[in-house]
Amino acid sequence: MDAIILQILNGLDKGSAYALIALGLTLIFGTLGVVNFAHGALFMIGAFCAVTLSRLLSLSHEVAIPGQVDFLGNPATRDVPYVYDIFGEAAGAAIIDWSVPLAILLAIPVMIAVGVIMERGLIKHFYKRPHADQILVTFGLAIVLQEIIKYYYGANPIPAPAPQAFVGSFDFGALIGFEPGTIIYPYWRLVYFAFAVVIIGAVFAFLQFTTFGMVVRAGMADRETVGLLGINIDKRFTIMFGLAAAVAGLAGVMYAPITSPNYHMGMDFLVLSFVVVVVGGMGSLPGAVLAGFLLGILESFASMREVLEIVPGLNQIIIYLVAIVILLTRPRGLMGRKGVMED
Question: What pLDDT is recorded for position 314?
Answer without folding.
Answer: 83
